[in-house]
Amino acid sequence: MRPFVFERPTNISAAVALVSSFADGRAPTQADVQFIAGGTNLADYMKLGVARPRRLVDLNDLSEPALRQIRISDGTIRFGALVRMGEAADRGDVKRHCPLLAESLKFAASAQIRNMASLAGNVLQRTRCEYFRETSWPCNKRVPGSGCAAMEGLNRQHAVLGTSDACIATYHGDFAQALIALDAVVDVEGRHGTRQIRFAKLHQLPGDTPDVETDLAADEVITAINVPFSEWSRRSRYLKIRDRESYAFALASAAVALDMDGDTVRQARIALGGVATVPWRARLAEEALVGKRLDQSAAETAADAAFAEAKPRRHNEFKVPLGKRTLVRALIETRDMKV
Amino acid sequence: MNQAAPAPKENMGNPIPRVDAGLKVTGQAGYPADLAVANVAYGVLATSNIAKGRISALRLDKARAMPGVLDIVSVGDMDGVDKPKFGNTGASSIGPLHDRTIFHDGQIIALVVAETFEAAEEGAMQISADYTQETPSASFDSAGAEMEPAAGKSPLFKEDVNAGDFEAAYSTAAVKIDQTYSTPTQHHNPIELFSTTAMWQGDKLTIYEPSQNVTGWKIELARQLNIDPVNVRIVSPYIGGAFGSKGPMTARTAIVAVAARRVRRPVRCVVSRMQAFNTQTYRAETRHRIRIGAGKDGRITAFAHEGWEVTSRPDPYVVGGTSATGRMYDYGSVLTRVSLVHADRNTPGYMRSPPETPYVYALENAMDEMAVALGMDPVQFRRINEPQKEPIGGKPFSSRSLINCYDQAAEAFGWSTRDPAVGSMRDGDWLVGMGCATAIYPTAAAPCAARVRLTADGQVRVQCGSHEIGTGVRTVAAQMAAERLGVDIDKVAVEMGDSALPPAPVSGGSISTASVCSAVLKACEAVREKLFVAAAGNDGPLAGSGNAKLDMTNEKVVTETGKSAKLADVFKAMQIGAIEEYAEFAPNGSSPEALKKLYAGQAEFHGGDQDKDSVKYAFGAEFVEVRINSYTREIRVPRMVGAFAAGRIMNTRTARSQLMGGMIWGIGQALHEATEIDQRHARYVNRDLQDYLVPVNADIKAVDVILVPEVDHEVNPAGVKGLGELGNVGTAAAVASAVYHATGRRIRDLPIRIDDLIT
Fold it and tell me: Following CA atoms B713, B718, B724, B727 in sequence, which dihedral angle do they give, to the nearest 10 degrees?
């Protein structure tokens, strides 16, 4: 393990000041200084030599109480950035207002990891692409410009949506799919003050720069995640399909919320996991459903729209039919929810 | 009694809790890397990231300059050390630091020794090498892979078995199939990581390392280091999962010993999960072609099994499971052929039921296909082809309870409720499938020595250089001694896992219970004999009981007429405080050299198909129900039933646990486990438990293990058939059978995943 400096600031502005004084203008994933909260992803990648920060700024001693609180008011759930996944998954009011939030957390990782991982850290988790994880392979995300071993390699786990010629690594998170479906907004604090970012704008497509993963600057820290909810977000769920029953990443998942007028869709919110390079809002599928009677055929039409642009590779062709069926099943199951 | 502790039936011992259970669940059991060592330095391996070529330059300067780095052992530093040998005790002939040739990805290129683990790890990361690279051959279909017949290449696989005229019988068979099957690369992934701790005291070397073969390793390590075996001690008190991976010694052990000698202090090297995939053994991928011909009545007339196995470039590791599949049923004619394919890979090795897992998977999947082709119930198909004698040599089975196992498992499973029509059974959105398959494992035993001491106060100490790999061998050895010496099991202490103890064979091939218990039994008989002579002698407390048969119970010597003498009184009459007996057991048919070979770490196996008078196997029948989502196609296994007969069951608790664990592993083999190889580079890419999936608790629902009573006095004095490797044989085929029943899809290549069923 490389030696590194471990900083423990006690409030947000001190943390931002610390990072600002060491940030070197590079993308946060490449910077010498990085934030750490639960550490369930970063510590792993430091052990593997994938992440090699010289300085870690630990967020666990920050004293602002709101960072650890879940507040529900005026149609918004506000999750403090340091709330642990397990705590959010177990909250009765979160389950009641937005079942898909709780389900996306409950089906992620293991109980032990959920008890450590922070919500903000969770949405910023990095890909588990096998070629990214091991430093001896070329990887444009890890070492910009070095190439991509997955493109013509073993890519069963890889993305079919949002890919580029530089990167096909999947974004593996679950919670982010629920957040993007519900149009969440994140609160951010950096050396230039505070700002809000729509969740849909937080992650960036790999394009030519897969090492740049988010809109955040290296000195910016997420302080809260705001999720608007309404009466109809009670009709929502997260369906996750994986090789084994627990503790596995999604081969395909679907986060669905439906605003129904009888059998007819007033509004649909759809996000797809396990199949895309970033949290993936399937807007074409949503539009295909608006004003339609939600039956098997309408669901299939929406699923076709969601995957119209899919670019499968040698080992992940099955993700297209699987992704579609996962979405169809999620739509029908959500339609049939008793709320 | 409860589910974990089944009530013993005929010829079964009590479900005594494991003698080390408390230590294990409270974290007090000392695994080799946990044992405290003063002044220890830490070693971390640096490994190659190419699979074939030569090291042209090794850059060590940055690592040497790291604070805390003490030494680096690399190519050229093994002067005076002999290369490893491939065989029962050596995993591979590759001596990674003996020359600059790279034989496989992840080959050891250096060991960095430092004051702390962290410094050693960082030092290892700083090492880089330049290579003259060649294009490697990854597997079966790679350019440059070399195929050869397996027969005669390994002492464990002398010849292909054949009987009758297969071609003639097959060509005229009324119903036949001709199919190919495959199993993937698999790694054991025991949760306890591999490690070596080496300590020198003058000329004497002590190694702490998880090992299934302390005696064999002592001899082999001494040979490599050119020192007297008397000066080598291997200590392995507890093992956190082995499954064959800790059977053969790897090149690392000698390298760490050399490092400890150079830095003049103990060195401990714990291998990372990733590095273990390449520096330890594994189950190589296999391919099979099976042809079966039968009459319309379902009687098989022709059976052919051809197998192909991958091995490393230099070593002919072969499993050759045709010796078991060729004897499974009453085939009429048998043709088998096994081929090896040499590729640029690390050398494979033993992994739980090495031959049977892949070969019986292929056979049983084919049997299920044949039953479908015949329109016959798969259980009935097996019943019709149940042999009186094995078809290769015409020898009888010492015992064979397969049909009994099928009957009991089928009833418990509710096989009669199965609608044989494909895709006919549903539960809401879920397709229901039911399947079955046969489990078989050869029953062997090997020479073994044990020392038993009984003191006047009824305390017993059993010493045997066998290994507690999680099977419960310590417990059953204690049970055997307690039963024969008539004391409570709490009074028996068992010492194992140390090459300073009386030698035992490798803990592999499911031989340990039979071999260890037979040796312990023999030593106990000698103790009893001394006590009986003294007790019934002229000055003994039972003087005058003549030739009455004596026994021991409740710390007493008792006569069949009801007279008894306390142990203490017998000892008093003998004027001694303890009796200690050293016994050497050798199975029937052992060669005159058998015991000599035991002490040389090369214990010979007897039993299975090797004996003159009979063949010896344990059998089982496994039934599996799968549920497959009709839409998204994920596969789940809500319940399994296995019935197994394995001679004398020493302990119903540990036996059930072994069989259940095997069946659960079978789920992993059917649905999850596969080491993925990047064919371009001959490199493994999923070298961790994130991507190498094994079942978790949520995947395993009801697992019902039925122990079927069986008496077999022929197998060994203890009457025990090993069962540690029985439970996982057949499971994957039963799952494949159930998947076919649910979906009509016959999946012949493992693992069976959503990918296979979604389109």
Answer: 30
Assess whether B725 carries a catalytic annotation: yes
Question: pLDDT tens digit string along B236-259?
Answer: 999 999 999 999 999 999 999 999
Rounded-to-integer distance, Cα A127 and Cα A139, Å: 12
Specify the number of domains making up chain A.
2
The answer to whether the Cβ–Cβ distance between A244 and B118 falls below 8 Å is: no
Q: Encode pLDDT of B635-683 as tens digits.
A: 999 999 999 999 999 999 999 999 999 999 999 999 999 999 999 999 9
> Of the candidates A131, A152, A329, which has its C-beta nearest B631's C-beta?
A329
Fold of domain B1-30+395-443+608-759: Aldehyde Oxidoreductase; domain 4 (3.30.365)
In this structure, how many other beta carbons lie within 10 angstroms of the beta carbon of residue B529? 13
Per DSSP, B7 falls in state P
What is the ipTM, given to two decimal places? 0.96
Tell me which residue range forms the domain holding A233.
67-339
Q: Which residues, in sequence order, are bridge partners of residue B343?
A: none
Query: DSSP state, A232?
Result: G
* Alpha-carbon span A305 to A161, nearest angstrom: 12
Question: B671 and chain A: CB distance < 8 Å anywhere?
Answer: yes
Residues of A with CB below 8 A from B632's CB?
A: 241, 252, 322, 325-326, 329
DSSP assignment letter at B6? P
Residue A251 to chain B, least CA–CA distance (Å): 9
Fold category of B32-135+210-220+238-271 in CATH: Aldehyde Oxidoreductase; domain 3 (3.90.1170)
In this structure, which CATH number among 3.40.50.300, 3.30.365.10, 3.40.50.720, 3.80.10.10 belongs to the domain B446-605?
3.30.365.10
One domain, residues A75 and A213: yes
The helix/strand/coil state of B459 is coil
User: Where would I find the beta strands (DSSP E) of A232-319?
Assistant: 236-241, 252-261, 264-273, 280-281
Q: Does A130 touch chain B (CB under 8 A)?
A: yes
Instruction: Tell the residue number behind the tokens 């949506």, with chain if given.
Output: A161
Q: Which residue is associated with the tokens 């015992």?
A: B399
